[in-house]
Design brief:
419 residues; alpha/beta; Lyase, Ornithine Decarboxylase, Chain A, domain 1; 13 helices; 31% helix; globular; binds pyridoxal-5'-phosphate
């Protein structure tokens, strides 16, 4: 027989629960599902875009829910601030991968979109959006050919490079297809994953691009992801100023050499109201549309260190509480496949600890005396890392209060070439 201690630790670790069935109460707080919320009818209604009467409690879980009013407020706040500060916005799509969200960003004044894969650039370009900037360089035949094909099809498409070898490959491919590739030089800004040495080396590459027949030099990119999450507005401002010194120097040298520098791009949600002073001409902010818990406590210009109040959390993953056998722990369907993380935060009950018990199993844990959900409850969770989470789902259920008012597909769900 298992001791009480074994039983508890099994629960905390969320291993296979082999406990004796002790009789579960029927769900009390979730509404019973009638014919009009069967999954078949729900899908038919979505296909017909008939959302009348669909409420959050009818949705299959785990699922992503977007609060439309908060999303709109976030999009407008960044757009308005950027306008006031005189900086363009070319938002990064990596966190939402949604044409509907992108259209809202464009309507609010964005001059294009930034993307992390050639597939994202193709998909958004096919959706009619101009001014796609791909923030990686094409390497290998597949990526190079796609970058050149898109450059031909859509002359507003641009991408970056930090390597003379890649620039030569691009020139060769562009020449073969009589295309013109628009290229920015990516300069190191604190992330080891990308970006060449600023100053003379970066300007030498810019000159190589500018002097070629099939490429056009557009400017510089310097993305400082670390600076974006520095806690405290003043510390973040200082970190951003320092880490972007190299790209400012590169621009000055390029101008001295007679090269036009049309674009200075970088920036993020954490630095959206800082980067107009760091030398950037446009912002690549992404997370601000929905927000994730990695940003919740970076502290804003208002001095509130407990919360970053500039943008509101507009996206949750909704889960169903589906099993209860252990003290201070209840199981959910929000597991590893839904990207559950211990740093996620439960909406309305931030004291709950989120546990991950396997592919389709999650948990909420609490201390004695703390309020907690019951079997059958629907609970919403703020995810930690948006781009990872949206990658695990195929649609957003768009809500106003409890009502579902729209359903938006998440792009790139059908195979590697689409991601
Ligand atoms: C190249 C690049 N630009 C911009 C962003 C957007 O940053 P954030 O989501 O912090 O706004 C990211 C995010 O990872 C990125 O990789």
């Amino acid at each position: 027989m298992r001791s009480r201690r074994d039983f508890l630790s099994a629960g905390v670790a969320m291993g296979v629960l082999a406990a004796t069935y002790k009789g579960a109460a029927l769900p009390t707080s979730s509404k019973s599902c009638s014919a009009d919320c069967s999954i078949t009818e729900l899908n038919q209604r979505i296909a017909r875009r008939d959302f009348r009467g669909i409420t959050k409690d009818m949705l299959p879980t785990p699922c992503m829910v977007v609060d439309l009013d908060l999303l709109n407020a976030n999009v407008n706040h960044l757009a308005d601030t950027a306008k006031t500060n005189g900086i363009h916005v070319r938002p990064h799509v990596k966190v939402h991968k949604s044409v509907e969200v992108a259209k809202r960003q464009m309507t609010a004044g964005a001059i294009g979109l930034t993307c992390s894969t050639i597939a994202e650039a193709e998909l958004f370009s096919d959706a009619g959006i101009k001014g796609m900037l791909w923030t990686k360089q094409p390497v290998g035949r597949n990526n190079t050919q796609r970058a050149i094909a898109l450059s031909k099809k859509d002359p507003t498409f641009m991408f970056v490079s930090d390597d003379a070898q890649v620039v030569d490959w691009v020139e060769e491919a562009a020449a073969a297809h009589n295309a013109k590739a628009r290229i920015l030089v990516s300069v190191y800004a604190g992330l080891a994953r990308q970006g060449m040495e600023a100053g003379k080396p970066a300007v030498d590459l810019a000159k190589r691009i500018a002097s070629s027949r099939h490429m056009q030099f557009e400017g510089f990119m310097a993305y400082s992801g670390n600076a974006a999450h520095v806690k405290g507005f003043e510390a973040r401002r200082k970190a951003s100023m320092e880490v972007l010194a190299g790209v400012r120097e590169s621009k000055a040298l390029a101008l001295e050499a007679g090269l036009p520098v049309n674009i200075m791009t970088g920036g993020s949600t954490g630095t959206y109201n800082i980067d107009h002073a760091t030398g950037l001409s446009e912002l690549q902010a992404a997370t601000y549309v929905f927000m994730d818990t990695a940003y919740f406590t970076i502290g804003g210009q208002d001095g509130d260190m407990k919360r970053y109040n500039d943008f509101q959390p507009a996206l949750t993953v909704m889960t169903t509480v589906d099993s209860q056998y252990h003290p201070n722990l209840i199981s959910t369907d929000y597991g590893a496949k839904a990207m559950a993380k211990s740093t996620d935060i439960v909406k309305g009950m931030p004291w709950l600890q989120v546990g991950n018990g396997g592919a389709e199993y999650g948990a909420f844990m609490w201390k004695d005396g703390e309020q907690h959900p019951k079997l059958g409850d629907r609970v919403e969770i703020y995810p930690t890392s948006l781009d990872m989470s949206t990658n695990a789902f195929d649609r957003y259920y768009v809500a106003q209060g409890d009502r579902i008012v729209d359903v938006w597909p998440i792009m790139g769900r059908s195979g590697a070439a689409q991601r």
